[in-house]
Amino acid sequence: MEEINLSEIKSPADIRKMSLPELTQLAAEMRSTLLEKLSAHGGHIGPNLGMIEAVIALHYVFDTPEDKIIFDVSHQTYPHKMLTGRMQAFTDPAHYDDVTGYTNPSESEYDLYSLGHTSSAVALAAGLAKARDFKGGKENVIAVIGDGSLSGGVAFEGLDYGATLGSNFIVVVNDNQMSIAENHGGIYADLRLLRNTNGTAEPNLFRAMGYAYRYVNYGNDLKNLIEMFRSVKDINYPVVVHINTMKGMGLPVAEANKEEFHYNGPFDLKTGAPLHEESPKDEPEDYSDLFAKGMLRRMKENDKVVTITAATPGVLGFDKARRKEAGKQFIDVGIAEQSAVDVASGLAKGGLRPVVGFVSSFLQRAYDQFSQDIALNKQAATFVVFYGSMFGMNDETHLGFFDIALLSNIPNLLYLAPTCKEEFEAMLDWSVKQDKLAVVVRTPGSVAVSNSEVKLLNDYSTPEYDVVRKGENVALIGAGLMFGIMTQAADLLAQKGVNVTLINPRNLSTLDAKTLDDLKAYSLVITAEDGIIDGGYGQKVASYLGEAPVKVLNLGLPKKFLNRYSYSELQKACGLTPEQIGQTVLSTIDK
Amino acid sequence: MEEINLSEIKSPADIRKMSLPELTQLAAEMRSTLLEKLSAHGGHIGPNLGMIEAVIALHYVFDTPEDKIIFDVSHQTYPHKMLTGRMQAFTDPAHYDDVTGYTNPSESEYDLYSLGHTSSAVALAAGLAKARDFKGGKENVIAVIGDGSLSGGVAFEGLDYGATLGSNFIVVVNDNQMSIAENHGGIYADLRLLRNTNGTAEPNLFRAMGYAYRYVNYGNDLKNLIEMFRSVKDINYPVVVHINTMKGMGLPVAEANKEEFHYNGPFDLKTGAPLHEESPKDEPEDYSDLFAKGMLRRMKENDKVVTITAATPGVLGFDKARRKEAGKQFIDVGIAEQSAVDVASGLAKGGLRPVVGFVSSFLQRAYDQFSQDIALNKQAATFVVFYGSMFGMNDETHLGFFDIALLSNIPNLLYLAPTCKEEFEAMLDWSVKQDKLAVVVRTPGSVAVSNSEVKLLNDYSTPEYDVVRKGENVALIGAGLMFGIMTQAADLLAQKGVNVTLINPRNLSTLDAKTLDDLKAYSLVITAEDGIIDGGYGQKVASYLGEAPVKVLNLGLPKKFLNRYSYSELQKACGLTPEQIGQTVLSTIDK
Fold first, then answer.
1. Crossing angle, helix B222-232 and helix B45-61, to 10 degrees?
2. B412 to A561: CB separation less than 8 angstroms, yes or no
3. Any CB–CB contact under 8 A between A168 and chain B?
4. In angstroms, rounded to a whole number, what is the distance separating the alpha carbons of residues A302 and A169?
5. Number of Cβ within a 10 Å radius of residue B135
6. Is residue B3 included in any domain, yes or no?
7. Which residue of A has its CA nearest to B562?
8. Domain harbouring A573, CATH code
9. Which residues pair with B504 in a beta bridge?
10. Using CA atoms, how far apart are residues A96 and B260, in angstroms rounded to an integer?
């Protein structure tokens, strides 16, 4: 067969003319093209390699964009982007960064949502299907969701509601037998049973929820997929199509190491080894690694300490070897942040010392559980926030700016912002030893910074700001990662003869009134935090000092969903470089 | 048989000596005692009447408090309280208010959590069971959850995790075939199928999730319940015990009108008619009623408008008759706040005009969906917050103080605080007509207030404060319900010759910089909001004005979980009476 010129595929219409052998050839070429980009560029490897055939079959059978597909999490949509007018971003290295890693309505009418959190697609699609029914439309509405994402509560809520539609509603369950790491939860035994019986067994979770059910055992076989999708096209009731796919398909090292190749940086296509390999000693120490090492130590010292993740063990530094080392003291509840918090609450109630690690953006799922089941009920659990920083993830779906405003305003919840690795360790050591308070500890960025001079406390339960330098007239309060920047600003000012007071507040949830009272006679207080200003720490200080004559300036991020921004440009735009802060001080006290 | 002296029942040990006839007699006496209290006092009627036998059987069979029971929502725990040392609060009218309406660890060691939000008990109990396993304990761990609560995503997450425990874990599903109103969702067809087949049918949702399964068809029959609970006591794997109970049992009017008698005020035991009956014209108009009337009108005017609830239609003023009138334009997604927001997002994406009504405290479940699926994706849906007020619900599990801090700090989400019913209607009218913005509208308290002089806008998309009175030197900014109080304070001050500027900010999510700039030369600005100060509206104002010489004072509520507080005492403690505000102004400008 002739080679297919991928560049000529401008829309799904171009593949609907193809024969099955041509489609097979297309899948092969897409796979090799994807491998080339992924090995050079990095990205979500396994999820996309496993979905090439299913995505081709979906666009081949359904009349997109009239028929609507919502991809859950949407990190598996590289093949979808290739077929919907964005091929160049995969074939041409100069254009690799033209597309985001998720569906994005501003890129294409084939993308319905900007999605990056899991488990929401079914409910969103159910709403879309309901709107279609209202308007008398006839288009198919399809949600595509992975087996891992099924463990999120909102997926279940969406399935529960979708089952009542009584009209066309197609849920494709892409079962690759993996979450990011292995799956955890009772439903996975049922999925396995269904796979092992070619979809014929009972009990069947999907039938139990009110869906018709179809099964495709060879979910990377175009012919099987096309036949199945044709059989459900224009169906007039809710149906689940369960397809059994292979994560990482076509890259043996990814097929064999599904967790490592879920998401990865550039790698050698033959060996899978990371490119630009550094010797271990050159790699900067990060808080994930530090956390895991520290928790392994704490768990050994005290068999009541347990570490909990909601399906992101790697973020917590717990690779397979460390999970094995931790044994039963490491718990993965699946992609289920609400349950992670509630299970931690139950563990604490039962006398254990649970420590839960979350990606900042994902903990948003569990606000109510933090509030009701932890804080109101005063359960002594510890929560560690990763990537809670403007210097963390910069996709608009994964921003780490919001957790201070979200969590620090919950009563009874102590929010600690360490400024360096020594303080991070000390706060965690204290937190797992006490049994009175619910504590949040935020890693100060990703790359660990050391400060051997940091003043540690034996008890962080009451707010006690560290006045690191005592100056006059001007105070700089730098929370978490911003403390280092404020220190640099203070140094710059000192060089100009302006000696300012420099403060590490440690605690962002309750003010240290005594220290702040001393600042009432100052002329300027500047706060800086690594999060949005609105609802954050600095505004508490501004409010507290509102009746005093001292001027207060709050630095931080604007309340905006930013997308793939430049770290340094954002820092500058927010006036958060040491030079800018120094300049702000000088121009203000000059007035 | 002799009568049982309920007052002699001090703990479950006292009922474990009883014969079955005695237990039956006990149930009858508890029911008549409960009916007496409920008819005089009000409360959760149907849920408790339906659970008397199950609660007796649980405490009879299991060795509480060593065996642990977590009741979901816990508004069905009046019988539990009667058996666990708190009988007097049910037999003696003078002590009716000695107990809260929910489990409460400060009342009794038999109460493990203070719970009032649904669907969390399974995950909490799973954590507790896991802690037991760690410690080598042998006690039974039991979660009791209603069929309605099963639709909440966290219930599913908890079931999913609990199934993996591999040890004693007993989930009692109390199926009374009702949520607060009727159930909605695909799982309810399966529950019906199970009831209709005496628990024998497949598919079986619980088996599909990895549980052994038992069914009790007569869930108000003590003998059946005791036998079943005995059969699962000390079981060494996870099991669901599905019991079929009758909501409202023993009160014919409640059996026949399950929704009306889910929760009710005092009523006539014979007729079910409300006591202290008022003529309709004497009843104060409330925002639930206003909302429903307004939405019925809007839905008639535009068939693209739909109203959505997550299982609390009554809060939205939609009783059965109004739901019928609204027809398919009224959607109930079940107790599933996440799905309510996502379905609204899908509906908006599909071109409809969804309006979702939430109890302030319950919307906490959906923060991530507000952020990601509504705000980030700019879907024009409208959300109405009920009971978001210090004058609303005052149980610690149902506080309405937190939603301003929670929602007003989300980018792209317009948070509007009307001050009276005219403004409430105008904001809603505008919101359902526009298709650009996601909008939150907060009802200003429960009882509707009228202000015929309020200045209405045709467009609320950009912040535009209403400077209602122009004074000098001092500005009072009153958000939502607090505007009325600030107006009274301004009147008091005017009587004393102090003419202040009085502002209705309307918009709590974005500041009106122009109006605030005019205040920089003032000597005092006071903000007042009906929510916690931390993370709220006033702190934004304090931050904005932080560099100006003007003093800023933020009034509102402390960041605390308060329980069954007195409205007037709290108002006074917060300095929020008109007199106090006037006094604050006078003493500040005097300085």
1. 50
2. yes
3. no
4. 50
5. 13
6. no
7. A376
8. 3.40.50.920
9. B466
10. 60
Tell me the shortest Cα–Cα distance from B323 to chain A, in angstroms: 17
d(CA A348, CA B554) in angstroms, rounded, equals: 36
User: Does A256 fall in a domain?
Assistant: no
Residue type, A540: K
Work out the angle at residue A173's Cα, subtended by the Cα atoms of residues A168 and A177, and round it to the nearest 5 degrees.
175
Pairing of strands A382-386, A353-359: parallel
d(CA B212, CA A25): 48
Indicate if B426 and B552 belong to the same structural domain.
no
Q: How far apart are CA B463 and CA B480, in angstroms?
A: 15
Q: Is B506 on the interface with A (CB under 8 A)?
A: no
Domain span at B324: 285-442
Q: Does residue A364 share a domain with residue A320?
A: yes
Assigned domain for A3 exists: no
Q: CB within 8 A of B253, min separation 6: which ones?
A: B261, B271, B272
Q: Would residue B308 count as lying in a domain? A: yes
Cα(B193)–Cα(A104) distance, integer angstroms: 42
When scoring B112, B156, B591 by the number of chain A Cβ atoms within 10 A, the one with the most, hence best to mutate, is B156
Q: Give the up-direction half-sphere exposure of residue B21: CA atoms within 13 A in the CB hemisphere.
A: 3
CA-based nearest residue in chain A for residue B532:
A409
How far apart, in Å, are the Cα atoms of A208 and each of A160, A188, B190, B209, B408?
10, 15, 6, 10, 39
d(CA A476, CA A588): 13
Based on the fold, state whether residues A432 and A507 are members of the same structural domain: no
A337–chain B nearest CA distance, Å: 9
Residue B229 three-state SS: helix
Q: Are both A475 and A436 inside the same structural domain?
A: no
A65/B contact by beta carbon, under 8 A = no
A217-259 residue pLDDT tens: 999 999 999 999 999 999 999 999 999 999 999 999 999 999 9
Q: Output the 3-class SS for B381-447.
A: CEEEEECCCCCCCCCCCCCCCCHHHHHCCCCCEEEECCCCHHHHHHHHHHHHHCCCCEEEEECCCCE
On whether the pTM is more than 0.90, the answer is: yes
Give the gyration radius of chain B's Cα atoms: 26
Indicate whether B200 and B305 sit together in one domain.
no
Contact predicate A298/A428, CB 8 Å = yes
- Do B198 and B254 lie in one domain? The reply is yes
A85 with A112: CB under 8 angstroms? no
Share of chain A above pLDDT 90, in %: 94
Q: Supply the ipTM of this predicted assembly.
A: 0.97
SS3 content of chain A, % helix, strand, coil (to 5): 40, 15, 45
Helix (H) / strand (E) containing B320:
helix B320-326
In the stretch 440-499 of chain A, residues with CB closer than 8 A to chain B read: none
- Taking alpha carbons only, the member of B242, B223, B241, B234 closest to residue B66 is B234
B245 plus B333 within the same structural domain: no
Q: Is the pLDDT assigned to residue B370 strictly greater than 90?
A: yes
DSSP B243: E
Structure tokens at B473: 């030197």
- Residue B189 Cα to chain centre, angstroms: 26
H or E, element range at A288 = helix A287-301
Task: Check: CB of residue B400 under 8 Å from CB of residue B362.
Answer: no
Q: CA A584, CA B444: separation in Å to the nearest integer?
A: 41
Same domain? For B99 and B226 the reply is yes
- Contacts with B, A 177-236, CB within 8 Å: 184-187, 189-190, 202-205, 207-211
List, for residues A6-64, the tens digit of each pLDDT value.
Answer: 999 999 999 999 999 999 999 999 999 999 999 999 999 999 999 999 999 999 999 99
Residue A588: how many other CB atoms lie within 10 Å: 15
> Rounded to an integer, what distance in angstroms lies between the CA atom of residue B173 and that of residue B119?
11
At B553-576, the pLDDT tens digits run: 999 999 999 999 999 999 999 999
